[in-house]
Amino acid sequence: MTNLAAMKLPEANLIERAIKMHGAEAFDRLEQEMISAPQVECSVRHMFAPGQYIREVTIPAGTYVVSHKHRHPHLNVFLKGSGTMVMCDGRHQELAAPMVFIGQPGRKVGYVREDLVWLNVFNTNETDVDTLEDLFFDKSDVFKSAQLELTASELALLECDRNDYQLALTQLGTNEKQARTLSEDEADLIPFPTGTYKVKIGKSKIEGRGLIATGNIAAGEFICATRIGDKRTPAGRYTNHSATPNARMITLNG
Q1: β-strands 92-96, 108-123 pairing
Q2: Which of 88, 110, 129, 162 has the least C-beta neighbours within 10 A?
Q3: Helix or strand holding residue 70 (H, E)
């Protein structure tokens, strides 16, 4: 779920190193080192209001993070927690909620002392999260490769999913070409309505693009609408088949 390099280590080492570093390239090297370590799940919620995209990230205490490179100044709202943030020129700042400030372009390294909830606020009418991330962040090749890397267990599960998908198509009396044609027809596609989401449409390890969880979703929790009337939302377009699904579609009356 994490959308940044996040790991747990004793506090002093990486912060002291980050303060002594200079330039984005040094932070790129630090990210490469961090991303090879076991990662911490950092839940992200996406909130859409007219003309605004609000990105809420929750990071547990004791975590180091290295951010993507932010392209533009933007409003930050620090709701909960405390920690240290280091800019790539070595400047550093102690943070303690509640506080509001303007985040500057560039990369940052941080250490979270108390569970953190942080909002980034952007002015935009765009609702596709991948498009938004392309607009506001520069992601390193190291990070993008790590996000798409498949483990041996994931490869085995992927093969199981594909075999089960073919079986489902046979049972439904159709084939992959027909199913793809129906799925890719965007004549009935509408954007997600304004609201708060713990999912995004992004690059899928299964195939192409898919519906991907970015936040912690509890059993029985409503995720998002797939159809509204006779229209499909992006979730209705990009939900992938699984032999062991972690979510299901239901019909709401009224």
Answers
A1: unpaired
A2: 162
A3: strand 69-70
